[in-house]
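so my prof wants the structure for this chain in the tokens format not the other one, which i didnt know existed until like an hour ago. anyway here's the sequence
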Amino acid sequence: MRIGLLTESGYPYVNGDARLWCDRLVRGLDQHEFHVYALSRDEHQEDEGWVALPPQVSRVRTAPLWMADDDGVAYGRRARRRFADCYGELAAALCAASAEAASSPPSAAEADRFASALYGLADLARDEGGLVAALRSETAVRALERACRAPGAPRAAHEARVPDLLALAGHLERALRPLSLGWYEDEGLGAVDLCHAASGGPAALPGLLAHRLCGVPLLVTEYGVRLRSHYLATGAHEAPVVRALLAAFHGRLAAETYRRAAYVTHGNSHVRRWQERCGADRAKLRTVHPGLDTERFAEVGEAPESADPETLVWVGGVEPTKDLVSLLHAFAEVRREEPKTRLRVIGAAVGADGAAYLAHCRGLAAQLFPDEADGPHAAGDNPVSFEEVGEPEVPDLADAYASGAVVVLSSVVEGFPLGLVQAMLCGRVTVSTDVGAVVEVIGGTGLVVPPRNPRALAEACVALLRDPERRARLGAAARARALELFSVERCVEAFHGIYLDIVAQCPVRRVVLDEAGEPLPFAVPAEAHVPARWPTPALAPTPGRAAGPPVRATGRGGSARGGVARGAAQPGVDGPGTAVPGGVVSGAVVPGVAGVVPGVAGRAVEGAR
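here's what i got, hopefully its the right format
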């Protein structure tokens, strides 16, 4: 099977988002061929280069999302009129959406209105060679102005000024750049069997166009709330009308993506709730937890006695949302109950805000815990240490979790807590705040407390420090749960099954030619010919008594080989009464079919082509 993997600011770049997840997926599904279509984040990301690609990645095409040169396309009068109509309709749809809650699912009429405008711009880009110059033109700004001034537009839109309209046009031009890419020809995304978008937003736009133009099915995977990230990316320095209309655009784009996708996967219930709120059909939703490499934590997890019974460990990237201030105040209460306890904070600062926050936490720790010394002439030692992975005492991430008996998470905002999964793989008991998908991940193998509650955090830590048997019991249960649910093998197996299911339900109908120009046999995967849904197996008739009147094979073409009529029901194919359209299965294992069809000779799929 040929998979078109669509990424934004991610794989195959070295410092890309979700790089490890995509790399593990591609390497785990080495029986498939991957074409990677990547949108880069900035110039620095491109300069860093790519990761080492496995041989199953046969093609990589990239495009910058952070800049776009003027395409030099000069529209004629008719093309300018088409652009004004489509862009004006898009702006009107956004103004109508901004009057409502941007994250609420649109009505069918509003969804069709947005989709018609979006695909109209895509068709124009294909016909004329690009949209960059048009999206930056005065025509675009005037279309936005008319939509904002139209009756029924929200009050904030009526008050939009020229700088606001220019800023909004710039944001929309950046978001719509994938429409101008030359990825949608028959040799590009039209040649894949399935498009897999590794995130929502701009990464899914090429998949939407491939689905519309070439009938390629689309799978969307979101391990974070991409729509929420777009909301937060619009800074507070932007005018309210800019933030409102951009939120409406990303909300409508998410709804259109969920509507056209064959399946939408998520990593936890938190993301699932966002997807449902934005209009995703529950029948299309599938939970696939992100897979982690379990081997790197195996040695620590199999030796739980190596932990220091008097040490608490915090591991992660230091930033304000991790709420280390509450952790330090909680540790002060822990020290009153257990004076010998130590706290190791292991992690690097994330960005400029993280560096300032780390400095603040160091100062707070020095105030709360003055250096302790055995005597007036001995050097003091602070019970709180700040370290980073890679230092001599913490050479590896597994060593960080191995250094303590209890792993603590004190965040106020969290998506899927990978750090908790890593601690569970190491056989460590955890104390966590109830945010994001923490409860879903822990599943009763650790203690959960409310966020921003240092007293509750301290009480949970003290309870585990005083009970080594409970720590060992919960740690073993946590490791078993993590190995069962969050391994790379489980993730790869789940996506492999989804791929086969999608191709079976939505096969791409194309004729593949060889070098001589002749149709290439067996070019379409075999599972594309298998019906997507099979009826529920019926109870077998009572032996010695016929279930009904005899049936005579009278189909066109006479009797099938092996005495089975062409297209007739066969025993052993998921119950009686099941027919294979176009032919019979002969002694072959078919995906989604329980067992092998016995007693039938001849071709594997007779009459399928």
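also thought this was worth mentioning. Confidence is low (pLDDT under 50) at residues 373-379, 539-547, 551-609.
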